[in-house]
Write a structure and sequence with these properties.
Length: about 120
């Protein structure tokens, strides 16, 4: 079993996070499946006080935010580490709907977010 890649906790203090158990409960999955999603790059976690947490903004009522996994893959292909990905996803960008890449994903603007992520790779 490979280690779970973890980002440094670069989130603002007001960014809500969920424990892996809370993520599992929200998604109707086991904690082991959530850990696999982290290993597979479908989610990103930070470590706080020894425990792993996932930003609540990565989830919507019916699952993981559409386009998040693809965006993480594009950023990974561009050479971004998990910490850089997290920083980019939560960075303020007034030119995006929702004012940050993660909020743009949450409002169904994934194509624009992925386009910008791809452009950063060049």
């Amino acid at each position: 079993m490979s280690a779970i890649p973890v980002a440094e906790d670069v989130l603002d203090a007001d960014v809500a996070v969920l424990s892996l158990a809370e993520v599992a409960s929200s998604l109707g999955l086991s904690v082991n499946k959530v850990r696999q999603m982290l290993r597979d790059g479908q989610l990103i976690a930070v470590r706080r006080d020894g425990d792993l947490f996932v930003p609540a903004a990565f989830l919507v009522k019916d699952g993981v935010v559409k386009g998040l996994g693809g965006t993480i893959t594009v950023l990974d292909d561009a050479g971004f580490g998990r910490t850089e990905m997290l920083r980019w996803l939560f960075a303020e960008d007034d030119s995006l709907p929702g004012s940050s890449p993660v909020n743009a994903l949450r409002t169904s603007h994934g194509t624009e977010v992925k386009r910008r992520a791809q452009a950063m790779a060049f």
